[in-house]
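Work package 3, deliverable 3.1, input record:
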Amino acid sequence: MNRLLPKSAGIGLRAPHVAQVLAERPPVPWFEVHSENYFADGGQALAALDRIRADYTVSLHGVGLSLGSTDPLDTGHLAKLKRLAVRVEPALVSEHLCWSSVNGRHYNDLLPLPYTTEALDHVCGRVSAVQDFLGRKILVENVSSYLTFPETTIPEYEFVVAVAARTGCGLLVDVNNIYVNARNHGIDADAYLAAIPPSMVAEIHLAGFDASGPCLIDTHGAPVAPDVWSLYERALRLFGRVPTLIEWDTDIPEFAVLQREAATAQSYLEAGLAVAA
Amino acid sequence: MLSLRDLQIRFATTLLNAGGDEIDRIAIYRNTVFANYRNALGATYRVVQQIVGVPFFNAAVDAYVRDCPSTGGDLNDYGGSFGDFLATYRHARELPYLPDVARLEWAVDEAGRAADLRSTPESLLAALGTIPADRITALRFALDPTCRFMDSAYPLLRIWQVHQPGFEGDIAVAFGAATDHLLVRREAGDVVIERLAPGDFALLRALAGGYDLATALDAAIAAEPTFDLGTTLRTCIASGTLTELRGE
């Protein structure tokens, strides 16, 4: 069953919490997992995901496809993603607007693209190829970045929106990444949000960053920052009620911390509903 | 203006080798990229990390990443040759058993991710029941897809055990003792490491390599003159290590 993602606050499920979720079945509206962590042929992790998806709506979020790379698309990687999607029947499949590999060598990180017409054409072709291969619409997520390229000629928000407009993919709007990029590159986060047609927005991500260095680093290792909560509130005013995910990937705390973050997001979602009603 | 491809190649080169005008900002990516690999390999190679300590381990991972780069987008698949790398890593020369520890940890990792077993001992016994006695030695067997073999000149299982979380008692390891022949496989979901007799090990590894039973039996007897095929076959069928008959 391809369930729709509830317009509620879900949690990114990571390995340290799987046993607790299976044992306690906490009231979480939906979970998102990193696709590659379930590419295995078998074993306990995959068996656990089978049990979780029987009771919860699940979304698959890829971190390794290297969508923006100029290397050929990795059809082996795509085949594993498709196999997993057939098994899990996720509500959504998403990938990042970035690249991770060139000349056959992978860096296993979300590297930034220059925003040029050439890159736009290239990425649109890749998104369409992935959607054709999987036989479904995907979402693409804006990434955080720590540098900009002198080659860039298109504002990031225009690039992201153009990918969705030209390929029919949806947008996974990471509000934290917009905030990080706004601070790192001196762009206007509200103008960024305002440029996104609400109909394109299928999911929102929230996470915490590290502010100890000369630029903000998107570590997913801290609570959502107060400024990001307020940007999220303004995003909901623009987009309406959107499924929202809490992500935490480094220094992962106990599950209850994620539940509290999700409860905060939920309160923003419901406040927005009250305003709309 | 640089093409997208040239830009990606230049970025990647700068990422690996400090230098150029963008050094400050690309260094942030360099740090996160290497930290990702240290964390990923640290999760797989927990015993190696404990033996050498985190600073040594991280330096070894950094050197490994430069020597044997990742070639895929699934980080879980990366790092299988770390044991072979450690065998050539000059700073690890004083720990000659370290490469085998890493190889065992990779075997454990692989066994945890391998395909689930779909057959039962009963189905294999039924298939064997249809084989005429004079054809038995020509048979080839498929093994449980989670099986991995590891033999070592060091007391590898003992080294592994004393480094497991929750291990209590004497952590002394007697080197110079007998070599280890280990079978790593998944049993009821959990990965287990079993020490095998030399004959059992030789038989199973030959069967896993696709050899027929006659050839595997020769290998087993060479390794252990008193090897008893009947006992081993019964045990390995009952345990699910041998799963089905293979086609020619």
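The radius of gyration of chain A is 18 Å.
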